[in-house]
Amino acid sequence: MVLNLVDLKEKLKPQLKNLWGIDDFKITKASHINKYWILGIEYQKPNKSFGGDTIFYSTERSVISANDETGEIDTIN
């Protein structure tokens, strides 16, 4: 059964937490092709200043392909 985007996002959350340490992300684009969801995602990545005393956030974007039934990440660009 093909996952809808809401369920897919829930399946991706723990995977992205393990890979990048991010807790939240936004799906900005989605396309379903040959048993895979191709997703454009946007997330906030914490960074430390050169002195290490200030944390600031930068907006990062990535493209992910995930299996449409399991939600398992296949590739990341």
Descriptive report:
There is one protein chain. This protein has 77 residues and is α+β, with helices and mostly antiparallel strands. It contains one helix and four strands, in the order H-E-E-E-E. Strands 1-2-3-4 form a four-stranded antiparallel β-sheet, covered by helices on one side. Strand 1 (25-33) and strand 2 form a beta hairpin. The protein is elongated. It starts with a helix and ends with a strand. 13% of the residues are buried.
Helix content: 10-25%
Radius of gyration, CA atoms, in whole angstroms: 14 Å
Average pLDDT taken over every residue: 92
Shape: elongated
Describe this protein with a few key phrases.
77 residues; 1 helix; elongated
Secondary-structure map with pairings?
Blueprint (H helix, E strand, L loop, with lengths): L4 H16 L4 E9 L2 E13 L6 E13 L5 E4 L1
Antiparallel strand pairs: 1-2, 2-3, 3-4
